[in-house]
Give the backbone structure.
Amino acid sequence: MAMRIGLGYDVHALVEGRDLIIGGVKIPHEKGLLGHSDADVLAHALADAILGALREGDIGKLFPDTDPAYAGADSLKLLAQVGELCRARGWRVADADCVIAAQRPKMSPHRDAMRTNLAAALGIPVENVGVKATTTEWLGFEGREEGISAQAVVLLESL
Ligand code: MG
């Protein structure tokens, strides 16, 4: 059986007047992430990890932010499209793990809902998607609450 590994990383700025959507969960907060789509930093990192393993570039190439079709797009739907591409190329997502870096708000109450959403978008068991979060101890842009970042790794197996 052939295997591939992929790494994804994404950052979005925190601004007033936007919803905070991470892993498909709308989290109550005074700020949200800025972006052309819903700016779901976690879904984007995971999608990029899969595209990396497929050697297919990144979501910016697949879903250009200059394309009005993706304005306000539900990133779980974009992730689902990446999952379909993955299967079409002869691979399946065997396992994934993700980490969110955010000083606030607390992500832990939403972790399982995020896992459920991401796994459902990819059509894989929830056991095969890990999500955790860390603060950055008030250091860097995440620590100053200027933005939130997310990283993901995936393992693909050939079908
Ligand atoms: Mg992004």
